[in-house]
Amino acid sequence: MYPIKQKWNIIRYRCTSETGVGELQNFIMDLIFPQNVCCLCRKPGLYNTRNPWCKECCNDLLDLQTSLPICKKCGKYLEDGEGICLDCETNPPLFHVARSVGPYTDSYRIAIKALKFLGKKNLAVRMGSMMACVVKNEPEFWPLDIIVPVPTSKGQMESRGFNQTEVLARQISKDLRLRLITDALIRVKETPSQRELTKEEREKNLLYAFYLKDNKHCYRKNILLVDDVYTTGSTSKECTKMLLDGGANRVSVITWATGQGF
Ligand SMILES: [Zn+2]
Ligand SMILES: [Zn+2]
Question: Residues 33-48: pLDDT tens digits?
């Protein structure tokens, strides 16, 4: 059984998905469940859906964003130098470009974990807006036609009650005024946690894990694929392959956080 707050969140999520009146729902939720600690460092204060973290954490997120140069293709942070990471050089990805808001460390890691594992869906509003901002400011992404989130497995959907990439994609779609297609891709294979696996194991694990349900929305379209974290890029690459096989013109990827590449 879900605890009452999680139950509320699920009801709210379903309402907002179907009616699109998210702002009002968030306002009501902020009134019912006021947030009195920063969701990243637990510092007491008054927070809400639009401002879920304290000033220090906000500055931390901004500082981390520009702390290291990034690979021009996949957006991974590079130890030093500029240009393209070794990974993209030896095995060029099929997607056009990939970018993240920040590195998968410190506050970025806490934020995605709080959204994913603690069910703090209200975080997706601010996080999705920050992702939309990165897309807006990177000319390589444009033009774009539709947004497609990476699907989650049935098991995860049942245990969490929502797909974290879909809630992020919903906010991005709102901010960029682009159509969101949530059921273009479906996950047909349950994959165990990818965290401890090597790049090769991840790729093998994800092989044929996704299926393009219907290509009518994707055919000849420039697609923005949304995922939470880019580590080896296996998930993004596999989904890109499915979308391109289905006739998509171009696929670009936006994630909340990314790892490091050398
Ligand atoms: Zn904080
Ligand atoms: Zn790269």
Answer: 778 899 999 999 989 8
